[in-house]
Write a structure and sequence with these properties.
Rhopdopsin 7-helix transmembrane proteins; about 5% strand; G protein-coupled receptor activity
Length: about 300
């Protein structure tokens, strides 16, 4: 891969070293991952089959759920199986691949959250133009741009990583492969690469977060002239989006905008946004969305009736 690579296999230190704690984590995180896949998969299925969920908001929500499944699946299955292994290893190629897909789906999610904020802005602030502005072709172009943005971001990260030589040591002090832990293993100075990664990850996250928050502030200000019912419905939708934005961006900014470290609390913060947040998103969106709850009940009733026949 890179120049003078003597390292072909990496050892992952993991989240905890105590075998009893690792087994306890296995019992906790296996159901968390299954809930992530089932919950987000249910949203994708419901939006696909329900005729009442044809609005652009639900189109983007279904793809956000698909991204959540993919994003979590780049890290959590490997982490869960490693909890039962005494020695946790990954090939250098596998490590680079994990970094690529982790950042690919993560940045695609950032773009999707931004698109969803734009969708809510147009729906609430420019309702008369909503159908024309958020037409189906426009929605597909915005979705494609989100995926391409994630691909471009990850490609830059991997190009930087592939230039580094790895000649030992080979122990990653983390529970999955990411840029900063891998940079520490390179047998060369990586300060320049760190400076490049900062705007590509940390500053990009902060800019996107500020853009999202600003758009919701504009939306909230525009609600002053709405009826009480209109404000309630709009606030319910925006509250769900803002909760997801805070849960996703908070830990990411905390990790990527500070000096690289391997403290246990940093690993726990990373665990929150790789495993816990993807599981919470379906709960947040369904509990605060009446149309989604009705569609889920209808889908469940249809399955029950078909099973009884």
């Amino acid at each position: 891969m890179a120049r003078t690579n003597n390292v072909t296999e990496l050892i992952i230190a993991g989240l905890f070293q105590d075998p009893e704690v690792q087994r306890a984590c296995f019992v906790v995180f296996l159901p968390v991952y299954l809930a992530t896949v089932v919950g987000n998969g249910l949203i994708v299925l419901t939006v696909r089959v329900s005729k009442s969920l044809r609005a652009p908001m639900y189109f983007f929500l279904s793809h956000l759920s698909l991204v959540e499944i993919s994003y979590s699946s780049t890290v959590v299955p490997k982490f869960i199986t490693d909890l039962l292994s005494e020695i946790k290893t990954i090939s250098l190629e596998g490590c680079v691949a994990q970094i690529f897909f982790f950042h690919f789906f993560g940045v695609a999610e950032i773009f999707l959250l931004t698109v969803m904020a734009y969708d809510r802005y147009v729906a609430i602030c420019k309702p008369l133009h909503y159908t024309a502005v958020m037409s189906r072709p426009v929605c597909h172009r915005l979705l494609a741009a989100s995926w391409l943005g994630g691909f471009f971001h990850s490609t830059v990260q991997i190009i930087i990583t592939l230039q580094l030589p790895f000649c030992g040591p080979n122990v990653i002090d983390h529970y999955f492969c990411d840029l900063h832990p891998l940079f520490k293993l390179a047998c060369t100075d990586t300060s320049v690469e760190g400076v490049v990664v900062l705007p590509n990850s940390g500053l990009f996250s902060i800019f996107s977060f500020l853009l999202l928050v600003s758009s919701y502030i504009v939306i909230l200000v525009s609600l002053r002239n709405r009826s009480a019912e209109g404000r309630r419905k709009a606030l319910s939708t925006c509250a769900s989006h803002l909760t997801v934005v805070a849960l996703f961006f908070g830990p990411a900014i905390f990790l990527y905008m500070r000096p690289a470290s391997t403290f246990t609390e940093d690993k726990l913060v990373a665990m929150f946004y790789t495993a816990v947040t993807p599981m919470l998103n379906p709960v947040i969106y369904t509990l605060r969305n009446a149309e989604m709850k009705v569609a889920l009940k209808s889908l469940w009733g249809r399955k029950v009736n078909s099973g009884l026949q």
